[in-house]
Amino acid sequence: GESVGLHLPTLSVQEGDNSIINCAYSNSASDYFIWYKQESGKGPQFIIDIRSNMDKRQGQRVTVLLNKTVKHLSLQIAATQPGDSAVYFCARGESSYKLIFGSGTRLLVRP
Amino acid sequence: DADVTQTPRNRITKTGKRIMLECSQTKGHDRMYWYRQDPGLGLRLIYYSFDVKDINKGEISDGYSVSRQAQAKFSLSLESAIPNQTALYFCATSDATVQETQYFGPGTRLLVL
């Protein structure tokens, strides 16, 4: 069945380094993908999204890469800061209203 | 996101009690959602509403009911709470023109004893 999963449950990076959070999906029919950031005690916050007609999309300090051949999605955070510490979720759109979420990766930023 | 608010933020209740979680939004979005978050399971959809007269079950609707009182308000009820409904509950909204992008409230932490 369809699923969205993450390779690593926890990622620890040095402040100032780049972070890469990975996500795999199994449904090749998906045409929309989205990344959320969830800080402790808060709801998921939209970071960036991408449609399947694109391979790459950039935001402020973040880049999402989509490799449809291997069904892989990644979120790159440049110059990681302490405020980036959070759980990051990838999700894919199964329809106009339904998002299928992965279980999350916790990003820890070491000072 | 301050545009989506949830009350209460924390709630402790006993098995068998009826409780209601409320969600309000000022984003002007037509679509509203209720999710449940458990550790290690991500977010799962309980109910969703496309407008005031259009309410649909999600993947885990058993034991829950909802009411869309207005475009801006969507409440979730647990008719008879049970311990395995202990979880984080999130409300979300989306715009019909950018349907897939959902914006979440701060969540309600519910503990059923």
Architecture overview:
The complex is a heterodimer of chains A (about 110) and B (about 110). Chain A has about 110 residues and is mainly beta. Chain A has no helices and eleven strands. In chain A, the strands form two sheets. In chain A, strands 2, 4, 5, 9, 10 and 11 form a six-stranded mixed beta sheet that branches. In chain A, a hairpin with a 4-residue loop joins strand 7 and strand 8. Chain A is globular and about 40 Å long. With about 110 residues, chain B is mostly beta strands. Helices cover about 0% and strands about 65% of the residues of chain B. Chain B contains no helices and eleven strands. In chain B, the strands form two sheets. In chain B, strands 2, 4, 5, 6, 9, 10 and 11 form a seven-stranded mixed beta sheet that branches. Chains A and B meet through strand 4 and strand 5 of A and strand 5, strand 9 and strand 10 of B.
Write the layout of secondary structure elements.
The complex is a heterodimer of chains A (111) and B (113).
Chain A: E1 4-6, E2 10-14, E3 19-25, E4 32-38, E5 45-51, E6 56-58, E7 62-67, E8 72-77, E9 86-93, E10 99-101, E11 105-110
Parallel strand pairs in A: 2-11
Antiparallel strand pairs in A: 1-3, 3-8, 4-5, 4-9, 6-7, 7-8, 9-10, 9-11
Chain B: E1 4-7, E2 10-13, E3 19-25, E4 31-38, E5 42-51, E6 54-57, E7 64-70, E8 73-78, E9 87-95, E10 98-104, E11 108-112
